[in-house]
Structures are given as C-alpha cells and as structure tokens.
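PROTOCOL LOG
Step 1. Enter all chains and additional molecules of the complex.
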Amino acid sequence: MFDHIECFYRPGTLREALLLLRKLGKRGAIVAGATDIVTRADRSPRFFIDVTHLGLDFVRKNRRGCAIGAATTMMALEKSPITCRLAGGILAKAAATCGSIQNRNMATLGGNLANASPAADTAAVLLALDAQLVVDGSRRKRKIPLAEFYIGPHQTVLNGELIKEIVIPALPGGGRWGWSFQKLGRTETDIALVNAAAGLQADSRGRIKWARIALGAVGPMPLRARAAEKLLIGNALSEELLARAGEVAMGEVSPINDGRASANYRREMSAVLVRRALRECACHAGIPILD
Amino acid sequence: MVDMLIMVTINGEAKRFSIAPGDLLLDVLRREAYFGVKRGCETGECGACTVLVNGKPINSCLMFGAQAEGTEILTIEGVAPDGKLDPIQTAFLDHGAVQCGFCTPGMILSARALLAGRPDPTEAEVREALAGNFCRCTGYLKPVEAVLAAAQANREAGLSGARTKSGRSRGQARKRQ
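Step 2. Run joint prediction.
Step 3. Record the structure below.
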C-alpha cells in the first residue's frame, strides 16, 4: 500500500525532525500514531517523519495551566491523573471514546488535532478549554489558539511546522464550575455523529459568569457556539434558557448530509447535546435549574 | 527506495528483518509466517490483526513496521509456549467462544492485555477490552463469558499457588473456598 515510500525517518530530537520537515517540504509527512495517515486517501507523501521519539509524550501541570505533549496517546490521556481531574475530566472522557483500545494505544492528541477532522472528539473539548497549540517550524515558533487553527475539513494553518504541545490555560478563579462532554455515535467508540463540550462558571447566586459551548461534526471544522454562550452570561439557568441556548446553537451549525447522518438530524441533535451538556454542567457545579 | 533493517523481539525471540520503509507491521509479520496475525479490514476497525506491542494491544494494519523497531511483540503463536494453552485459550474452548476462528487470535491477545493489568475485571471492562475485535459468527456473549471465566481461573490458580507456597496443598486451598 505504501510501496512508493522512499524513507521512514525516526528522528530522536526536535531539531532533527524540523530539519527533515524543511528539507522534504510537501514530500514529507509527519507520522505519530499512524492511525489516520494509513487510512487517509492522500498517498502523495514519499517520506515519513516519525515524531514519537522527540520527548513529546507528557502531561504537566503548573500554576499557569496544563501542557500536554503532542505525541501523548489517547490512552495516556485517559489514564493521566492530571487530565482525569482537569475540567471534570472531559478531555480524558473524550480521549476514551476515540476508537477501540487498539487505536487509542497508538493515536495521539497532536495527531487528532492536526488531522483536522470536523468530528475530532478532543478538538471540541479543547475549544471549550481555550487551548492553544505551541507550534515549531525551522524558522519560527508560534502559539496558535485552537479556535484559529482550522481553515476547513482536514485543513489547518500549519505550514511546514509541527505541533509541539497543547497548552490549556488555568481557568478564572472562584465560583462554581461544571463541565460536560457529550457524544452521539453509533457505538461508544465510533466516530461522532455530533459531539459537544461545555463548561460553566456560576457566581454564588447561581448566575452564569463564564460559559463555553463547542460542537463537532456539524460544520467544516469544530466550532464554538458563541451566540449560545452569550445568551447564558449574567443569567440564572432555567429550563427555558437551556431550550433557547440549544435553539441558538442549532442556528450556529452548518452540518452536511453523509453516509452517517443527515444534516437535519445533526442540526437537531446539536440542540439536544447542548441542552444535555449544560444540564450536566449545572448538575456538577450545583447550579440550580429553575422550572 | 532503500530497505531498512529492524530489530524486534517476537514471542521472546530476537529477530532482524529487512523491510521496505512503507511496510505495515501486519505485512511484515505475515511475510515472516506469523499467520495467526489475520488480515481483516486493513482500516483499524476489526481487530483481527491485533498484536501486543510492549504489552499493549494495537492494530498491526495501522502501524508501520519501522515503528516496531526495538519493541517486544506478542502474537498468538507466542501465547502457548510448549503447547501449554493459556487459561484464556482454554476458557474460549470450554465456552464455545470460537466458531470460524478468524477473530480469535485478536480477542485472546486483547483479553490477555486486559487480564495482565486487571486480574479481576468487571463485565463492562471485558466488553470494552473486546470492543475493538469484531466477531461475525458467534457474537460476543461467549467470548465475554470466557474471559471472565479465565480471569477467575487465573485467580484461583494464583490463590492455590500462594497457599501451596505457604505449606498448604492445592486440595486444601480449594476446600477452603
């Protein structure tokens, strides 16, 4: 299947990997867990650069937040005590649904993001967590907010660069917090028909101070439902508000028909998952929902 | 294209293979006559090509041979050294969990990785461990029952072994339960 591959490089340092990337240009493709690249239709690369030996498998926490190496596997994210506690464990939960154990032992966080599937489960969660990507090229280093990383289905702003780590900033202090990850798929580990991640912070009187709602598989790229978030700010939660937030989010998505689900179904399920996610956030944060 | 050399340990034996840079691990293993590694969907869905790499189940159809350099691989051929069946294999036979047998090597290896880390798994954990191994004949009830039975057999063997060490006979250990 890959008879045309001329060389499989396994660099041991980041510098070496970047030099190879620069030298090979478009003919070189980055391989991490390989689970996407093997099944991808694009067979144009003639060289592979394995980035799993660059010391990029780590999960670290400090006062400013959390940093995750791009080559950290889904299985490691599921098991890491840091990700299991971070934001109600939603990143660990999302990682645990990324295919079978066989796939999760190989697939990496950086790969899931760089593959840029609109349905990537970790992307929805990381959008809700305001994550940034630390990206390295041979000429420059930069930090890209995940919200500005995607430009279309399977397309990113990366240009001869590789993702080094994913940074999740520390959350604003105080108040009550709740988080949720929701996924609708044919089976528990199947690709998402729709996925959603949400986070809420409420003041002592139960009014929403901070809100994040992100959705996947309902547009060309994972997206934030910003209008729905805005609707919640400053208000106490009620059944009516949850229903309205779902409807507003439904207006922010632009799903397609495909073999898995129709656009209409995905649109309606966006509202359902947003409501479910907000309800779970409220439940975990102890925020009352008025009738 | 330049061939590359990889060094791997397969079923406890050190091996050196000359491979093409784009070879998938599945192709390498089958070329080297490990035919218990089955070619199924080739897209990482069915789990028929499952092997353990450093103790972890992976789909060998989604891993490049080059990535296996320096690893320890266990295939179904290495599960019963000297012909002595693993308790999981015995349980699959006892429970009628094998029909055509195509998915069986992958299931046994997934189950083995599970029991190595969780000797006393719940049914839900067994189902999760086998979720990446598709069976198109018998369904999943019997394999799940077989893995739970193997876990119990392992625990009992461990228990009687411990008792034997402390001076009690196997029979006495059984009686006490």
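Step 4. Note key features.
Helices of chain B lie at 25-31, 87-94, 104-117, 123-130, 141-165, 170-176.
The CA atoms of residues 98 and 104 of chain B lie 7 Å apart.
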